[in-house]
Design goal:
The chain is built from 14 helices and six strands. It has helices at about 15-30, 50-60, 85-95, 105-115, 120-125, 130-150, 160-165, 180-195, 210-220, 245, 250-255, 255-260, 265-275, 285-295; strands at about 40-45, 65, 70, 75, 220-225, 310. The strands form three sheets. It has a two-stranded parallel ribbon with strand order 1-2. A two-stranded antiparallel sheet has the order 3-4.
């Protein structure tokens, strides 16, 4: 649900349609608002021709092909392609004609780049891992506007290397966001929110992000232990020396994936972490096992104090 817009997912079965109709009718009874099916649409996801006939009969609303755009973002079964994100590049390029760049100096164009053009992809970046091809195309439009005041330009018109331009002002750059780095940062935002706010309805999902984003997130975050109930024993950085997977890589390799995802520090320090380890260990792994036992002997929990997840 977003504002007054609702997306409902149904299987093309009579039972689902009957339940959907009952929900819509109950909503109308309680609120006095009746659903106008002419303003609704049915989007078929991997449905057969027989399914479409049932949908036409039961819903009696327009059928829209899938993939589609919803709330300004492409909805697909796979990662959106550069073609499906062409509208992003077009929206950035369409801003240029109305600005009369020929009447602006480079300082004025710089402010428009930082305040508007570089900000336009942010909404999509917060939800999608944008293809490099899309980011490069948007970056090219921004470079052309900054240096020449138009979308099309040649490489020789660039006065300074773009990596230098995207550096912070205190490092000698112009402070223009690096779109690729900004895309990774906004993807890491989901991992951060998942850890600091478990009241969000999606916080228990396995959020899929590129491996580079996850590495950046894990390298930049750490946990300050309280009661240990929200910190992962094996994968979070809660010891000053680092993560256990880095401190004892052989021992980490002997732990099943399920235990890596579930074991918390609170249960681990009560001895539960020993249950995670395969009994068939080689000499290097046994040495790491005793090293970890000795290290954990000095760790104390603070009952009643929640763990604090921090960036730094």
């Amino acid at each position: 649900m977003y504002a007054d817009d609702v997306a409902t997912f149904l299987r093309p079965t009579r039972t689902d349609f009957r339940v959907f109709a009952a929900v819509v009718e109950d909503f109308a009874t309680v609120s006095g608002l009746r659903t106008n099916m002419d303003k609704c649409s049915a989007n078929l996801i991997r449905c057969s021709d027989a399914d479409r006939i049932i949908i036409d009969q039961k819903l009696q609303c327009p059928v829209v092909p899938f993939p589609l755009r919803y709330l300004g973002l492409p909805l697909t079964l796979r990662k959106p392609s550069a073609v499906q994100l062409q509208y992003l590049m077009d929206s950035v390029a369409n801003k240029l004609p109305g600005w009369r760049a020929s009447l602006l100096d480079k300082g004025g164009r710089l402010e428009l780049v930082r305040a508007t053009l570089s900000a336009m992809p942010i909404f999509a970046m917060m939800s999608l891992d944008l293809p490099v091809k899309t980011l490069v195309a948007i970056e090219k439009i921004i470079r052309g506007f900054l240096w020449k005041g138009r979308k099309d330009f040649k490489g020789g018109h660039c006065l300074v290397a773009w990596n230098k331009v995207c550096a912070p002002k205190e490092w000698g750059g112009l402070g223009i966001p690096n779109l690729r780095m900004m895309n990774m940062a906004l993807r890491a935002r989901w991992l951060w929110l998942q850890r600091v706010d478990n009241t969000r309805p999606w916080s228990e999902f396995n959020i899929q992000v590129p491996s580079m984003v996850r590495q950046i997130f894990e390298g930049a975050t750490y946990s300050v232990i309280g009661d240990g109930k929200s910190t992962f024993f094996w994968t979070d950085k809660w010891l000053p020396e680092g993560r256990l997977r880095d401190i004892a890589p052989n021992l980490f390799a002997a732990v099943p994936k399920r235990a890596l995802r579930l074991r918390r520090v609170h249960d681990g320090l009560l001895g539960g972490w020993l249950d995670d380890i395969s009994p068939d260990l080689e000499a290097p792994t046994i040495r790491e096992l005793f090293q970890v036992v000795d290290r954990l002997a000095d760790v104390a929990l603070s009952e009643g104090v929640e763990d604090s997840f921090r960036w730094g």
